[in-house]
Amino acid sequence: MLIKVINPNTSVPMTEAIERSARAVAGEKVHAVTASMGPASIESHYDEALAAPGVLAEIGDADGYVIACFGDPGLDAAREVSDGPVVGMAEAAMRAASYLGRGFSVVTTVDRSRGRTWDLAERYGVARFCRGVHACGIRVLDLDRDPDALATITAACRKALARDESDAIVLGCAGMTHLVADLSAEIGAPVVDGVQAATLAVQSLLAMGLRTGDRGEFAAPPPKPYRGLLHGFAR
Amino acid sequence: MLIKVINPNTSVPMTEAIERSARAVAGEKVHAVTASMGPASIESHYDEALAAPGVLAEIGDADGYVIACFGDPGLDAAREVSDGPVVGMAEAAMRAASYLGRGFSVVTTVDRSRGRTWDLAERYGVARFCRGVHACGIRVLDLDRDPDALATITAACRKALARDESDAIVLGCAGMTHLVADLSAEIGAPVVDGVQAATLAVQSLLAMGLRTGDRGEFAAPPPKPYRGLLHGFAR
Amino acid sequence: MLIKVINPNTSVPMTEAIERSARAVAGEKVHAVTASMGPASIESHYDEALAAPGVLAEIGDADGYVIACFGDPGLDAAREVSDGPVVGMAEAAMRAASYLGRGFSVVTTVDRSRGRTWDLAERYGVARFCRGVHACGIRVLDLDRDPDALATITAACRKALARDESDAIVLGCAGMTHLVADLSAEIGAPVVDGVQAATLAVQSLLAMGLRTGDRGEFAAPPPKPYRGLLHGFAR
Amino acid sequence: MLIKVINPNTSVPMTEAIERSARAVAGEKVHAVTASMGPASIESHYDEALAAPGVLAEIGDADGYVIACFGDPGLDAAREVSDGPVVGMAEAAMRAASYLGRGFSVVTTVDRSRGRTWDLAERYGVARFCRGVHACGIRVLDLDRDPDALATITAACRKALARDESDAIVLGCAGMTHLVADLSAEIGAPVVDGVQAATLAVQSLLAMGLRTGDRGEFAAPPPKPYRGLLHGFAR
Amino acid sequence: MLIKVINPNTSVPMTEAIERSARAVAGEKVHAVTASMGPASIESHYDEALAAPGVLAEIGDADGYVIACFGDPGLDAAREVSDGPVVGMAEAAMRAASYLGRGFSVVTTVDRSRGRTWDLAERYGVARFCRGVHACGIRVLDLDRDPDALATITAACRKALARDESDAIVLGCAGMTHLVADLSAEIGAPVVDGVQAATLAVQSLLAMGLRTGDRGEFAAPPPKPYRGLLHGFAR
Amino acid sequence: MLIKVINPNTSVPMTEAIERSARAVAGEKVHAVTASMGPASIESHYDEALAAPGVLAEIGDADGYVIACFGDPGLDAAREVSDGPVVGMAEAAMRAASYLGRGFSVVTTVDRSRGRTWDLAERYGVARFCRGVHACGIRVLDLDRDPDALATITAACRKALARDESDAIVLGCAGMTHLVADLSAEIGAPVVDGVQAATLAVQSLLAMGLRTGDRGEFAAPPPKPYRGLLHGFAR
Questions:
Q1: Are C and F touching by the rule of 3+ CB pairs within 8 Å?
Q2: Residue in D with minimal Cα distance to E120
Q3: Does F201 sit within 8 Å of E208, measured CB to CB?
Q4: D96:C208 CB<8 A
Q5: Interchain CB contacts (distance < 8 Å): D and E
Q6: Which chains lie within 8 Å of chain C at 3 or more CB pairs, if any?
Q7: Is D186 an 8 Å CB contact of chain E?
Q8: Could you report the per-residue pLDDT of B92-125, keeping only the tens digit for each?
Q9: Domain ranges of chain C
Q10: What is the CATH number of domain B91-194?
Q11: pLDDT (0 to 100) of residue A56
């Protein structure tokens, strides 16, 4: 059984941290890959739209897939073209957090990402559990080089818990995955990392023999010509 | 690590089937128990209200808990008094099915149970994925003695998939857990059994070190006297 | 015509206050009873789950029933086993308040009870009218022995009206029923007590000859064995 | 204590039937009046908009008011200008029916009135209980002269209960008030008449000393000139 | 092609400002009229209910209609009796603003009008985009005579944008239409005036040959007698 | 003033039909372009994800933009990078149809596209107006070569109107734009084409001087490296 964890941005160090985090809960059957095309980090709708092709290019050679960016880029499309289950880290994190109390707070990177999180929360049916989405003000690629990152995010988590009267924290960026243990110890409340949550969700679906239904909307897409720069995506 | 799967009704054969099903996906760390008090099966709001004490009496000696009845009786209360995570089979089944497409159909036992399923679907935020709740017309304790049970439920699943245009089936009773493999083979669409889904959800939460938040609503309940028949429930 | 008002906790002085309050609006046909089993007060999901059996034990010998705890414990189950209408004080209070303007604020006892109120507000369809749920910080059994209770709750009501820009107050605990007249005079805005509202709702339903529909979900539950401590609940 | 039941249309026989029905549950303190201006019956948005002035002209000389048309015309405005509580028959009927099970069906007169009922159901928070709105095809003023009215409406109620799997019927027109007892006997399920429900709701609010909050939106409207045909409505 | 913009209040100077504003975006085919009956300004539910007749009296002699009051009085009724499209300024403004980002703030006149705006936002499906409704504290007829109106509203807009973290402002009163250009220049964010938005919406619908569907609810109302002051409204 | 209508697929004949349709309502200022990369038609989530880059490559040289595919691919991203307004044809069509009655039906091409339409209806706040989404069974590129297309779609529209009891039809594919006049004439109910509706919406926004707010989420995206096939998308 091979679970492929796809980092939708093109930053290799983040992929390495993602793999370490996923393996810590699910072992050696997990393999992480870096997108071969697209943005260095995903911090806008523009970045996210242009991250989807890189995700889709990675589907096809594993038993299940994780999309390891909190915007879950390309999720529906990946489900159509994959034979195994596909889980986004945002959906898995927010659903896992829904088991932990009445509500959670999301702590993400920059202000402009908050809208997308609300979109996803609604789409996944977890908006009723999501009591707030907060930015810590650190950009994605600074998460592992800003020496104050842990302190800054700890402060943001505490503030979020207090303001939202929430029961748990959801980390709103794959680039925070290496901090989950420290944050959890610091704040004394459950902290959910979507990389781990999504990897375990795929593992669980595989254990039950479950994959995306292929009776209708998520059947394999009808083949057709693709042109220009993207002609290689024709199936 | 011990995961305790609680059968909220008092029927031992159902507990045995539940344990087999849970162990098939999560191994020997799973132990199933039968409620020591309450109804022989849960087929009404009355049965369900009176199943909660039996569930609560089982909390306390494991690392995590599954409530193995599709009404999730006593879930909020169990979270207050447990040190580890508690997952209901309805929430786990419906959340797992939400990874498998745009919508699922629930197939349950008797008509009168459908309302409760809708209540839970809404509460868990999965109503948007739940496209229909259907009864197969078999009472709970007949599920393992009616020779036509598999055929009847297969027919109900097929009808549900067609009518609801859904991507997957959720089995709406723990008494159907022994049928999940056969049903899945028969109907050619994903079939989710909540006993397995909830056991894997607890296992995943434990792997991530997560348990119910205890900062507010789900802190341990304030101790106080209990009277009459229930005086033993004082903490 | 006999309306039975059930106090789901086991505290007799609270039952007496409830009866006085209900009789003030509906006269001598009202009779209040104290639950024969369960918690001394209801301040957690655990307490509430364990209050339901005591409520259900009281159904059967009156024309209509009020459940006089703001969590409405056992409501659905009571409707199944009763021949007459059953009304919870939370539903009646919040529906009555919905006639009084665009929105109301609930003032309840302790913080941890607020979540349950939101659950009920949503279930009863009054969440759109419920603009806030606030705790006054007084525990249930202190409501009639704390000399500052009236002042504390008055302050909480005023703060709630201002913060929520609401039109009315709903008292979120049966233990506040003796304060409704004083509070109303103090704050100069409508104050709704659910004990009175529910009693009048039952009286109104009886006047119209209405009771719970028994065509489906709320038909009498199918009889079956009950075991252990709860074996006496078999019907 | 005087409760004024306002018939928003100008048909006197309907007012008489309304008064009989209201007095049957609330006695001699109820007085019904016919609107002095506007449409003979209310069967369109146009009729309803033009029924509001006639309703508003009746506010001012009673302790509480019922608006006895299922569109509740002028309700918000009446609350602003009344010193006592004002209840619409649609809100009261649908809220009363919400005590009787999981859902009700509305049976109204003509197809084109169904949209307005859904608007009100949503506004009052009862859409979750409203499982269907059905027309019987009889126009308002024919309800008391069509010899087949009872049979036709009985058939519509039975069909609605079956199709919607609902627990109760709500009559969607004040012109059906004289049929409620017969319908109830015929169909064997609870039938709610809003004239009675609203009268009892006003009576209950008065018993609790409750009226519309006047702190904000429902304070008395600021006085100002009115011109033309409506100049007499200046306050 | 004639577009008639109806000012539902009886203040001629406001009509003149409305016409200037509408013509600025849609040219000479626009003609504005003042209601011939009703309140001098619309600042309560009472005013609004009594503004509807004046609106309805204006329907019949143009190709399309705008209702130029932010409460959209008489909208549904006007659609029934008009042969051409009818658009309310609130619906057009809020829908136009929905193209400009994740959310908008409404700035209106007086506090008591905010509730009605939320009603409309929900009815039109734009509540998800409406992040706040704020009053500037200036009464309708003072908007063009208060020398500080522009400064006061500018301040209210800035505060709303900051508090709501919104992308755009919607002006919540036709009496603000003359300020839209200045406000837009002052605050540096999009400002939507519903008079212009509704006029352009009618123009667009006419360009596409679209008008209200007349198959059901919005067919011409059935004719019937009208009595008293309103007898002239019989059709 | 230049309005650029972007056909997100790579089929030139469809672009030509789109341009004719847009110019019919908005004149010569409209220019249509064909995406330079991506799928020949958009009939799956996969196609749609891979259509977004082609849309984004077209932003930058006009005053306003229309995205002429009913999935509105790349809409949020286009708003970030455009200086002028951007409108998707699905949002414009569904909002325009919301002016025409209580509800509309969408008629689209193939079954698997219906889910995406519901996603968009919810996101745009028009789900309350959307009473049904129906497929006619004709694939996108067959719409202008299937000799029975008009008859087939006419039949689908009629069936949708009857089943949904809706007031209007929304055409769910840009490839149907050339049929709007014929369909409208055939079925006798309003038929909304999103190409025209979106072009007029952009024109209206430009007339009011409105564009996407750039204060937060829709500010220009932060610049960063792009790698691989998509490196040219770095800004």
A1: no
A2: D123
A3: no
A4: yes
A5: 163
A6: B, D
A7: no
A8: 999 999 999 999 999 999 999 999 999 999 999 9
A9: 3-88+197-233, 91-193
A10: 3.40.50.12500
A11: 98
Report which residue type is found at B42: I
B118 contact C CB<8A: no
Angle, alpha carbons C40-C41-C44 (nearest 5°): 125
Of the candidates C215, C154, C138, which has an alpha carbon nearest to the alpha carbon of residue C189?
Answer: C154
Q: What's the CATH number for F3-88+197-233?
A: 3.40.50.12500
Distance, in Å, from the CA atom of B200 to the CA atom of A82, rounded to the nearest integer, reads: 23
Contact F50 A56 (CB under 8 A): yes
Residue type, B171: L
For residue C209, the distance in angstroms to the closest alpha carbon of chain B comes to 24
**Pairing status of strand B104-108 against strand F38-39:** unpaired
Distances in whole angstroms, Cα of residue E47 to Cα of each of A218, D65, D80: 53, 20, 10
Q: Do domains E3-88+197-233 and E91-193 have the same CATH topology?
A: yes
Mutation target vs C (from D82, D208, D214; most C CBs, 10 A cutoff): D208
User: C35: which DSSP letter?
Assistant: -
- Which residues of chain F are within 8 Å of residue A123 when distances are taken between CB atoms? 119
Residue of F nearest to E214 (CA): F167
**Do A and D make contact, counting contact as 3+ CB pairs within 8 angstroms?**
no
Put simply, whether B128 touches A (Cβ < 8 Å) is: yes
- Mean pLDDT for each consecutive 10-residue tract of chain A (235 residues)? 97 98 97 98 98 98 98 98 98 98 98 97 97 97 94 98 98 97 96 98 98 96 97 96
What does the pLDDT average to over F114-142? Answer: 97
- Residue E82 is predicted with a pLDDT of 98
Contact between B62 and B4 under an 8 Å Cβ cutoff? The reply is yes
User: Under CATH, which number does the domain E91-193 receive?
Assistant: 3.40.50.12500
Locate the chain C residue with the closest alpha carbon to D128: C125
- Work out the end-to-end distance of chain A between its first and last CA atoms, rounded to an integer number of angstroms: 25
Q: Which residues of D touch C87 (CB under 8 A)?
A: 99
DSSP chain B: --EEEEESSS-HHHHHHHHHHHHHHHGGGEEEEE-SSEESS--SHHHHHHHHHHHHTTTTSSSEEEE-STT-TTHHHHHHH-SS-EEEHHHHHHHHHTTSSS-EEEEESSGGGHHHHHHHHHHTT-TTTEEEEEE----GGGTTT-TTHHHHHHHHHHHHHHHHT-SEEEE--GGGGGGHHHHHHHHSS-EEEHHHHHHHHHHHHHHTT-----SSTTSPPPP--EEGGGGGG--
Q: Which residues of C touch B53 (CB under 8 A)?
A: 49-50, 53, 229-230
The CB density around residue D163, as the number of other CB atoms within 10 Å, is 12
CA quadruple D73, D75, D81, D83: dihedral positive or negative? positive
Class of CATH domain A3-89+197-233: alpha beta
**B:C CB pairs within 8 Å:** 162
* pLDDT, averaged across chain E: 97
Q: Quick one: average pLDDT of F109-130?
A: 97
F5: Cβ contacts below 8 Å, ≥ 6 apart: F18, F19, F22, F30, F31, F32, F33, F65, F66, F68, F195, F198, F199
Q: Judge whether F16 and F32 are in contact, CB under 8 Å.
A: yes
pLDDT band at C69 (very low <50, low <70, confident <90, very high): very high
Between chains, do D139 and E80 touch, taking CB under 8 Å as contact? no
Whether ipTM > 0.90 holds is yes
Nearest by Cα to B190 from B113, B99, B121, B114: B99
Q: Which residues in chain D are contacts of E229 at CB distance < 8 A?
A: 36-37, 53, 229-230, 232
Cβ pair E80, D46 in contact under 8 A: yes
- Separation between Cα atoms, residue D112 and residue C177, nearest integer Å: 45
Q: B193: which chain A residues are within 8 Å (Cβ-Cβ)? A: 208
